[in-house]
Fold:
Amino acid sequence: MSEFVKRSITGAVYVAVTLGAAMLGQWVTLLVFLPVCLLAAREWQALRVVEGTVAVPLWSTLVLCGTAYAGMGLLPMMPWLRVGHLALVLLAVLFLLIHMILRAGDKDPMSAFTFHLGTVLYIAAPFALSTHFLATGPHPFLGFMFLLWTSDTGAYLVGRAIGRNKLMPAVSPGKTWEGLVGGVMLTMALGWVLSLYWKEFTAVQWMAGAAAVAMSATLGDLLESAFKRAHGVKDSGNVLPGHGGILDRFDGFLLAAPAMWLMIQALS
Structure:
């Protein structure tokens, strides 16, 4: 089977599962993204392990990521949950992990501590935002995903057609300024179209959110490329045929989801 066919099949399954879960509601989406979040955390830890350091056990990273994801993802689904109670659980888990870091004798405890904060902010929180987007129905989350895919596809097509000026050649030689601008414009155009039919957000919110998605998704792609280059690997994993790892597939999502959510909140 060719690489193109593998990528096409994997992409089709990814789209179908994501859209199907969104249509079925918050609980299904929360459960669908849980294993995705944990697999991303596993790849995130693999990128952190370098020679000369003591790795924090994988299970502890998964516990932290799963607890943070579930805690943040449940908030819009259970209004009676108190943020303070969830914060106490996360704090207890974090204290436990700090204790394990110190007992393990990690040669760079500051790096280990920063890594765990990154696990929560970079991995768990963006995936957990899926249920927040779905709080008023499927349209906000579906719209976000359509904007994300349009940004990725638009930047690629425009870059291939007229791209001349490299955006950041030391990190990702294929990305161009023309592709970025084209992706932003196409994504904002889709945002305007969505505003005509899906009234959960205003036209300004949809279009501003679209711009935030297009720019932050590009930064997310570049950031993950930098992580892989620093570790000397081509892909973050191999769980997705033709695409690599979870982080390879969701690199734009991890920055775009918080960016759009924050933009929408700022314009509310």
Q: What stands out?
A: The two ends are 48 Å apart (CA to CA). The first strand starts at residue 166 and ends at 168. Residues 203-231 form the longest helix (29 residues).
